[in-house]
Amino acid sequence: MEVVSPSPLGFRLPLPPSPPQEVIDFEKQNIILSTYNVEEPESEPTRLYPLPPKPRQNKVLPEDLKTPDNFVERDPRLIRLTGIHPFNVEAPLSDLYDEGFLTTKDLHYVRNHGAVPRVEDSEILDWTFTVEGMVEKPVTLTLRDLIRDYEQVTYPITLVCAGNRRKEQNVVRKTKGFSWGAAGLSTALWTGVALPELLKRAVPKRGAKYVCFEGADKLPNGYYGTSVKLSWAMDPERGMMVSHMMNGEMLHPDHGKPLRIVIPGQIGGRSVKWLKRIIVTSAPSDNWYHIYDNRVLPTMIDPEQSADLPETWKDERYAIYDLNTNSAICYPAHDEKVPLTDGAHTYKLKGYAYAGAGKRVTRLEVTLDQGKTWVLADLTYPEDQYRLAPEGEMLYGGRLDVSSREACFCWCFWELDLPLSQLAGAKDVMIRAMDDSMMVQPRDMYWSVLGMMNNPWYRVVIHKEGQSLRFEHPTQPALIPGGWMERVKKEGGNITNGFWGDKMPGEEAVPAQEAAAKEIKMVDDKVTRSITASELRAHDGEDEPWFVVNGQVYDGTKFLEGHPGGAASIINAAGQDVSEEFLAIHSENAKAMMPAYHIGTLDTTSAADSLPTPPESCPQSPSLVFLQPKTWTRALLASKEAISSDTKIFTFTLSHPTQQVGLPVGQHLMIRLRDPVSREAIIRAYTPLSEGSDTGSLRVLVKIYRDTPTQKGGRMTQALDALPAGHAVEFKGPVGKFEYLGRGRCAVNGRERKVRRFVMVCGGSGITPVFAVLRAVVKDVQDQTRCLLLDGNRVEEDILLKKELDGMEREAGAAKCRVLHTLSRPADGWTGLTGRMNRELFEREVGRPAEERDTMVLICGPEGMEKAARESFLGMGWAEEDLLFF
Ligand SMILES: Nc1nc2c(c(=O)[nH]1)N[C@H]1C(S)=C(S)[C@@H](COP(=O)(O)O)O[C@H]1N2
Ligand SMILES: [Mo]
């Protein structure tokens, strides 16, 4: 049931459905009524300031149905910057500009670090949040309290993501952030309570210096949270507010429904959505997202280094608060063509500009000769029209009285008419804005590891094509190709030479080859075939499995036999775009093999016939079996138990207590973790300790390779180690070419083989797949297979699962299960074998293969050990097919 106020502007302002006595209650609370039953603003002639355009009625989009955001209605025009989920989007730049000063919820950019918290309309007035920490009077408030007990205000505010224009940085050099175009900003009328009012009532204590905000969105590293200075938060001129309405409607779920912080003049990242806590503190927020996001580190720190610099990340001097001055050209749009012959003599260039910290953009200049001479553009500040509203003016139930405020909270627009002949005579057009502290946008980019606050002169290249001009922006958002930056780079230009990649006299071009040196070539240049998505989909099975990496189609048929990861992983990829996974787990050698399997390029021109987007991971799957071969499934980290100085057992909770792990003996699963800022995936294969039939939880033993002063540690293992309990991790499987079916029956790449004996050779954490097979043999008293395990380590403490191994030997008897440990650096008192896993050891303990060829050697360990084992066994007369490397 909805109570909707009729509005010629098209605002739909539903009252939360509630029992009748609640409605009566509402009527008493005329503030709430006036908040959600907004009177018609346009009918009054005094309103000379802009009001938002009519919003659309959107639907839940099909691509969102498979994600946790499957209840959020969205506008299909928004460009997704990080795949399907989480939702990070900007509008096409022209559409954003065309909406005018105020952006509808339809086209407002969205930056969600994770899933959108779900709050029903009927619950919003009961939403609670706290003001706590260093305050005399901590309180818990409902949204109802906030509306009833506090004065409401309405301000126009532009939010800008610190990543706005980041794609340009990514083209120069990949940063740890995804590729925003120039539409990562939007303006709306926000209604709520001024933050100083709330804080004043809570009474900050002496020594309090910061205000932290925390949202309800639980993310990989905790709830989203950040902080700002208390002195700013208390300053009415700064305009910080707690807001529950945007453009006269309750907040859209993507924008923080039902309650958020809105901070004018600062980067969007400080405006916490789905607000649950306001905490007054003496120190800046220690929230992970406050420290590892929204910062500009010094330019010489590269992505690899940055991983090792916790103190640098925590340095508050690098945290971004106020926006820097920035601007963009919106018209001419990218790829816009302007005929030179249709009689028009001038072209109107148009765009936006903004300054941070309440500052004002005081000039915008345009150059057609790369900065030698400049022309002033006309600036308009629609925001100023709100300052003229009469005293006490109300809008959407909030006081819109900004007449006394000098600060600028919004973007402004610039325009310049230029003769077409001048444009035709120039190779490019560039702009720069200046603010009221005379700071002017720089000519050169300041590249930094997160790629934030990018604000060099905005440059549009002019191409003369016959009787028309074609304009080329620097980049296009996300992975959309186009823009002069990528083009010039591909042509071998050095786009950071200070001249936009133009060759300077005496400057050598960067050979294109060298520019792309580190990228392994995965295509066969002779292949010219174009393959449609339906053709690809017809090859989604085991005969002729085709798959896509980076837009290229590969036929895996000839590699089913030889694939070290087993045929199954190719078959599971069939018919899909597996770029991310492929690139994350394959070595440069493996990538170099790809041209041999390249058969064509995926045709992406026909939208109707597009590839199904890879399914998102399932948060909770009702199915009986946890591991799914084609989709990632999530499980929550329940606990970490240290079993040695560098090894931990990670326990994950499955979707329900009776859900089975579902992993055949000898096979592996894949674990995927994502960097929460860059969204980059890390994927590795592990053999869990849990058996396939175990239910409810999954245990994985992981040796953590920590960074040392001389050597980089493991990315995955350190990331896993840093995970807090409660964090979701994604799994997929099974994978692997070997399976132990029991009682001597093995399958290698699906082909069955009988063995009487296993020789197991392993080192370090290589024990885990071997252990799974050994355990299966020992557990089944009918299984007659004999096993010899050779386990090599450095010192006794390094031996993983020693107790379990010794226990199995005792239980089965040494005739069936013999375990030998050898140590390369034994301590005094060690009674087992000593020395490395080498030919001598293998000759002594294993020797030549038997006549019957009834033995398989299972090998898993560090690269050097595996190599020594291969050479030794082949040297002793063993055949390649008797050796199995996990
Ligand atoms: N709780 C929460 N608040 C958040 C974020 C988030 O992921 N979670 N993203 C931040 C960032 S980086 C930006 S730029 C703005 C974007 O606000 P919008 O999505 O309403 O445009 O929200 C900020 N507030
Ligand atoms: Mo952001």
UniProtKB/TrEMBL annotation:
Cofactor dependence is on: FAD; Mo-molybdopterin; heme
Q: Which UniProt keywords apply?
A: Disulfide bond, FAD, Flavoprotein, Heme, Iron, Metal-binding, Molybdenum, NADP, Nitrate assimilation, Oxidoreductase
Superkingdom of the organism of origin = Eukaryota
Cofactor: how and how many bound: Binds 1 Mo-molybdopterin (Mo-MPT) cofactor per subunit.
**Reaction(s) this enzyme catalyzes, per UniProt:** nitrite + NADP(+) + H2O = nitrate + NADPH + H(+)
Q: What role does it play?
A: Nitrate reductase is a key enzyme involved in the first step of nitrate assimilation in plants, fungi and bacteria.
Q: What protein family is recorded? A: Belongs to the nitrate reductase family.
Q: How does it assemble?
A: Homodimer.
* Annotated protein name in UniProt: Nitrate reductase
Identify the species of origin: Canariomyces notabilis
